Amino acid sequence: MSHPPTLPPSSTWCPLVELALAEDLGPGDVTTQITIPPDATGRARIESRQEMVVCGVPVVCEVFRQIDPGLEVKVDASEGATPGPGVAIVSLSGSVRSILEGERTALNFLARMSGIATFTRRFVAAVEGTGTQIVDTRKTLPGWRMLDKYAVAVGGGANHRIGLFDGILLKDNHISAAGGVGPAVAAARARAPANLRIQVEVESLAEARAACDAGADFLLLDNRSPEEIRTIREALGDGVLLEASGGVDLDSVRAYAESGVQRVSIGALTHSAPGVDVALEIQP
Amino acid sequence: MSHPPTLPPSSTWCPLVELALAEDLGPGDVTTQITIPPDATGRARIESRQEMVVCGVPVVCEVFRQIDPGLEVKVDASEGATPGPGVAIVSLSGSVRSILEGERTALNFLARMSGIATFTRRFVAAVEGTGTQIVDTRKTLPGWRMLDKYAVAVGGGANHRIGLFDGILLKDNHISAAGGVGPAVAAARARAPANLRIQVEVESLAEARAACDAGADFLLLDNRSPEEIRTIREALGDGVLLEASGGVDLDSVRAYAESGVQRVSIGALTHSAPGVDVALEIQP
Amino acid sequence: MSHPPTLPPSSTWCPLVELALAEDLGPGDVTTQITIPPDATGRARIESRQEMVVCGVPVVCEVFRQIDPGLEVKVDASEGATPGPGVAIVSLSGSVRSILEGERTALNFLARMSGIATFTRRFVAAVEGTGTQIVDTRKTLPGWRMLDKYAVAVGGGANHRIGLFDGILLKDNHISAAGGVGPAVAAARARAPANLRIQVEVESLAEARAACDAGADFLLLDNRSPEEIRTIREALGDGVLLEASGGVDLDSVRAYAESGVQRVSIGALTHSAPGVDVALEIQP
Amino acid sequence: MSHPPTLPPSSTWCPLVELALAEDLGPGDVTTQITIPPDATGRARIESRQEMVVCGVPVVCEVFRQIDPGLEVKVDASEGATPGPGVAIVSLSGSVRSILEGERTALNFLARMSGIATFTRRFVAAVEGTGTQIVDTRKTLPGWRMLDKYAVAVGGGANHRIGLFDGILLKDNHISAAGGVGPAVAAARARAPANLRIQVEVESLAEARAACDAGADFLLLDNRSPEEIRTIREALGDGVLLEASGGVDLDSVRAYAESGVQRVSIGALTHSAPGVDVALEIQP
Amino acid sequence: MSHPPTLPPSSTWCPLVELALAEDLGPGDVTTQITIPPDATGRARIESRQEMVVCGVPVVCEVFRQIDPGLEVKVDASEGATPGPGVAIVSLSGSVRSILEGERTALNFLARMSGIATFTRRFVAAVEGTGTQIVDTRKTLPGWRMLDKYAVAVGGGANHRIGLFDGILLKDNHISAAGGVGPAVAAARARAPANLRIQVEVESLAEARAACDAGADFLLLDNRSPEEIRTIREALGDGVLLEASGGVDLDSVRAYAESGVQRVSIGALTHSAPGVDVALEIQP
Amino acid sequence: MSHPPTLPPSSTWCPLVELALAEDLGPGDVTTQITIPPDATGRARIESRQEMVVCGVPVVCEVFRQIDPGLEVKVDASEGATPGPGVAIVSLSGSVRSILEGERTALNFLARMSGIATFTRRFVAAVEGTGTQIVDTRKTLPGWRMLDKYAVAVGGGANHRIGLFDGILLKDNHISAAGGVGPAVAAARARAPANLRIQVEVESLAEARAACDAGADFLLLDNRSPEEIRTIREALGDGVLLEASGGVDLDSVRAYAESGVQRVSIGALTHSAPGVDVALEIQP
Question: Which domains are present in chain D?
Answer without folding.
Answer: 10-118+273-283 (3.90.1170.20), 125-271 (3.20.20.70)
